[in-house]
Design a protein that fits this description.
Number of helices: 10
Radius of gyration: 22 Å
CATH topology of one domain: MetI-like fold
Number of strands: 2
Distance between the termini: 28 Å
Length: about 270
């Protein structure tokens, strides 16, 4: 199997299969789930059966159905946050690299100020004060994760901005937007794409952690982090808490397998250039 002109190793194929399965579960959850996510369909802590494959949770809701709906909520919000972080981080990073020293100083100062605070603690404080509505959650985590994206984009753009083909474009009289769009961005894509996968994993795990602590996605919406919290009290008697935890772990592993392959391609390409 080949992708982007490169042969896919077995690990990357496994990662892509995991990602595709999770995307299908998220997109088609209303059609795949045997029950609505919030309906009580039996007694609390019901054992797994032909009607309820993973059993029932603390309120008698079907765990398998909630995992499918949880994929939609957890993955969807994580993708939105990652996209927001990249739009802000890449734009600010490229601006710091090409717009001059003072822009770089101001943006870097703001980034260092945010980085000085632990991510989880900062998110907990903001969400405790501002509330746990989904838009606030997306904006808070998106701004936090835009900072490491900014630092990567700035470093990559600064390395590219001093290369000969960029200098040649400047001498031809090309504008900054043309140079960013045609010279810097295409050559910065490999590390940025790999960073996107890693940042999605970090976002995904942070959302699950916030939901587990009660400040992430709120009931009755299904979310893997909150499901672990709700069912954890019965982990010694029922494996019900292991299912959402396994879903979190498997998706994280799948994304990292693909990211490792992308980073290997990028490193190999740099070695060939040298």
């Amino acid at each position: 199997m080949r992708l982007f002109g490169h042969k896919l190793p077995l690990s990357a194929q496994i990662g892509i299969i995991i990602i595709v399965i999770n995307v299908i579960a998220a997109v088609f959850a209303p059609f795949l789930a045997p029950y609505p996510e919030s309906d009580i369909v039996g007694s609390a802590w019901g054992a797994p059966s032909a009607d309820h494959w993973f059993g029932l949770d603390n309120l008698g809701r079907d765990v398998f159905s909630r995992i499918l709906y949880g994929a939609r909520m957890t993955i969807g919000i994580s993708i939105l946050i990652t996209l927001m972080a990249f739009l802000l981080g890449v734009a600010a990073g490229f601006a710091a690299a090409v717009l001059g020293r003072w822009v770089d100083i101001v943006l870097s100062f703001i980034a260092n100020l945010i980085l000085s605070m632990p991510t989880l603690i900062f998110a907990l404080v903001v969400l405790s004060v501002m509330g746990t509505a989904i838009p606030i959650l997306i904006i808070t985590v998106g701004l936090l994760y835009a900072v490491p994206v900014f630092r990567l984009a700035r470093a990559v753009a600064m390395n590219l901005a001093v290369l000969e083909y960029v200098e040649a474009a400047k001498l031809r009289g090309e504008g900054l937007w043309w140079i960013i769009r045609r010279e810097i961005l295409p050559n910065a894509l490999p590390p940025l794409v790999a960073e996107f996968g890693l940042r999605f994993c970090f976002t995904f795990l942070l959302i699950a952690a916030l939901s587990f602590l009660g400040l992430g996605i709120q009931p009755p919406n299904a979310d893997w982090g909150s499901m672990v919290k709700e069912t954890g009290q019965m982990i010694a008697l029922r494996p019900v808490a292991l299912y959402p935890a396994a879903a979190i772990a498997v998706l994280t592993i799948g994304v990292n397998l693909v990211v490792d392959w992308l980073l290997a391609i990028h490193s190999r390409g740099q070695g060939e250039e040298v």
